[in-house]
Amino acid sequence: MSRPRKIALVGNPNAGKSALFNALTGARQKIANYPGVTVERKSGRMVLPSGEPVEMTDLPGSYSLDPTSPDEEVTSKVIRGEFVGEAAPDALIVVLDASNLEQHLVFAQEIIALGKPTAIALNMVDLAERDGLVLDPIALEQALGVKVVPTVAVRRRGLTELGEAIAAAELRHPGPGLTQLSMTERRVAAHAMADAAILSESKRHRLHARLDRTLLHPWLGPLILFALLFVVFQAVFAWATPFADALEGGVGLLTDAVNDLVPAGLFRDLLTDGVLAGVGAVVVFLPQIVILFFFILVMEASGYMARAAFLMDRMMAGVGLSGRSFIPLLSSFACAIPGIMATRSITDPRDRLTTILIAPLMTCSARLPVYAVIIAAFIPQRTVGPGIGLQGLVLFCLYVAGIIGAMVVALILRRSVTKGAASGFIMELPKYQLPAPKDLLIGLWQRAWIFLRRAGTIIFMVTVILWLLLNFPRAAEGQNQVDASIAGKIANGLAVVVEPIGFDRDMALALIPAMAAREVAVSALATTYAVAAPVDNEDAQAMALGDQLKARWTLPMALAFLAWFVFAPQCMSTIAVTRRETNGWKWPAFMLAYLFGLAYVFAGATYWIAVAAGL
Ligand SMILES: Nc1nc2c(ncn2[C@@H]2O[C@H](COP(=O)(O)OP(=O)(O)OP(=O)(O)O)[C@@H](O)[C@H]2O)c(=O)[nH]1
Ligand SMILES: [Mg+2]
């Protein structure tokens, strides 16, 4: 008996191949891996309407037969019959997304040109209809030279017709397409075909389709995303300065008022050195937080964020994660806690664990005050190109360092601790929308409120405790108060550990309370320097934190401190949430150990490289 004919489903990512495959084969599926690669091989039996039994294969989504990823390589090799141990498919079903016709026709032409028996599933016609798109399958059929069947995979519409079409599909002469036609030529042809097949379309749909073509373009898309993020970080510095200056002035006025109204003594010191210097040092970063979230909220509300996730899916697959991890990781830019909780939507337990473990590497908004105060003090405010400020560039690099760190760690974890294949990604792209100003304002208000509440509660409390520990026991005549204090003594102990990476006692002192929350590093430094300033020296007393840092730290020290905060898991709440979400202490302990390890190594490397470079 001859083996059943083999039919493969091919098409761009997210065309609905897997949905169609499931609808066609039902439960009769076999899932395995292609030998030698971690790409899933899905096949299943089905019976065509003619009664012919066939074997159906679901191939990974691809943009062309020139592979750029392991998935695409499998698709390309299987279709051409070059995959060892895998028979070439006898017929192909090309799956197209009807609402994204032009883009999907580029790859379709390449496949049709192979000359194999081929039928087209014009899938997702329901979404196209919803978008006000009227399509003409006959026109498409004439342009492509193969049968076109409208389908809705998720509603099982058009399946019988598709079965009939593939049974009737015949071998054709290979057309010009593989070598003769360039990518550009295929794009031009795709444009003409889509034009002919689209009978009517709303203006809005045309605009959205054009936006998607650009923003989801295989290499233009990531480039635009990158450029956009770059602009965001430039803006965080460039726009915030006047507002931050005003806030700083406000804190200064308050300090003056307290100095005038409250009699000199420990209580006044608590108010000025503890509360105003400490909490004030954090609060001045409110404008930067608001600007950062303005961009994040606009990207979310406009529908762009989902596109970014879609673009990142390929990169995430490269490190063994799926695009599903993207949203939790993205939330972690605000704060790792909601990010880690959002991993509940990841079904694969090892995928989920990996995502939890790398979430703290995404630069959360609590790091922004730490980065910003040090960058403002040590990185000169000059441009390094048209419109590119050096300070914004450094901030951008710190964010990128966190992302690269996370990707490398994910790659290593997926090969060791959380070994396993990456699972697929299913996601629907929302429609583009202009963000509603009211929603934006509410979102910004919420973010600002969260930030201020933290400053008023946890940061306030930790700063007051630190102030107490810094002021007792009282220093003897001629002795520095910080040296004499309990906090100073504890910090001396830690300083021994962090001296090899270039940190001094004051930095060590800031690290301890910063375990509660990262911003506390800023308030702790401000309070420490306020307490340390000689009482009789008015100038030293009035010095802003940035000037204090400039006077006391070297550039290598500052850079090492930045590198430390890229990695260090200085956030009690994150550890607690990780414990809750992983049901035990094993993984939070692992997380603490590896992140502190990385922080130590990278801060040290940064310090010694900077020293060697003569900075
Ligand atoms: N409304 C609608 N949704 C569909 C249709 N076909 C697929 N989908 C949805 O589109 C999304 C992507 O479908 P998949 O089947 O995973 O796409 P794929 O082509 O296998 O994607 P890759 O495996 O990434 O190449 C899923 O959320 C499906 O539920 C359809 O005809 N109509
Ligand atoms: Mg699929």
TrEMBL record:
<dbReference type="GO" id="GO:0005525">
    <property type="term" value="F:GTP binding"/>
</dbReference>
<feature type="transmembrane region" description="Helical">
    <location>
        <begin position="219"/>
        <end position="240"/>
    </location>
</feature>
<keyword id="KW-0812">Transmembrane</keyword>
<dbReference type="InterPro" id="IPR030389">
    <property type="entry name" value="G_FEOB_dom"/>
</dbReference>
<dbReference type="GO" id="GO:0005886">
    <property type="term" value="C:plasma membrane"/>
</dbReference>
<feature type="transmembrane region" description="Helical">
    <location>
        <begin position="326"/>
        <end position="343"/>
    </location>
</feature>
<dbReference type="Pfam" id="PF07670">
    <property type="entry name" value="Gate"/>
</dbReference>
<keyword id="KW-0472">Membrane</keyword>
<feature type="transmembrane region" description="Helical">
    <location>
        <begin position="589"/>
        <end position="610"/>
    </location>
</feature>
<dbReference type="InterPro" id="IPR027417">
    <property type="entry name" value="P-loop_NTPase"/>
</dbReference>
<feature type="transmembrane region" description="Helical">
    <location>
        <begin position="355"/>
        <end position="379"/>
    </location>
</feature>
<feature type="domain" description="FeoB-type G">
    <location>
        <begin position="4"/>
        <end position="172"/>
    </location>
</feature>
<dbReference type="InterPro" id="IPR050860">
    <property type="entry name" value="FeoB_GTPase"/>
</dbReference>
<dbReference type="Pfam" id="PF02421">
    <property type="entry name" value="FeoB_N"/>
</dbReference>
<dbReference type="InterPro" id="IPR011642">
    <property type="entry name" value="Gate_dom"/>
</dbReference>
<dbReference type="InterPro" id="IPR006073">
    <property type="entry name" value="GTP-bd"/>
</dbReference>
<feature type="transmembrane region" description="Helical">
    <location>
        <begin position="553"/>
        <end position="577"/>
    </location>
</feature>
<dbReference type="GO" id="GO:0015093">
    <property type="term" value="F:ferrous iron transmembrane transporter activity"/>
</dbReference>
<feature type="transmembrane region" description="Helical">
    <location>
        <begin position="451"/>
        <end position="470"/>
    </location>
</feature>
<dbReference type="InterPro" id="IPR011640">
    <property type="entry name" value="Fe2_transport_prot_B_C"/>
</dbReference>
<feature type="transmembrane region" description="Helical">
    <location>
        <begin position="275"/>
        <end position="297"/>
    </location>
</feature>
<keyword id="KW-1133">Transmembrane helix</keyword>
<dbReference type="Pfam" id="PF07664">
    <property type="entry name" value="FeoB_C"/>
</dbReference>
<protein>
    <recommendedName>
        <fullName>Ferrous iron transport protein B</fullName>
    </recommendedName>
</protein>
<feature type="transmembrane region" description="Helical">
    <location>
        <begin position="391"/>
        <end position="413"/>
    </location>
</feature>
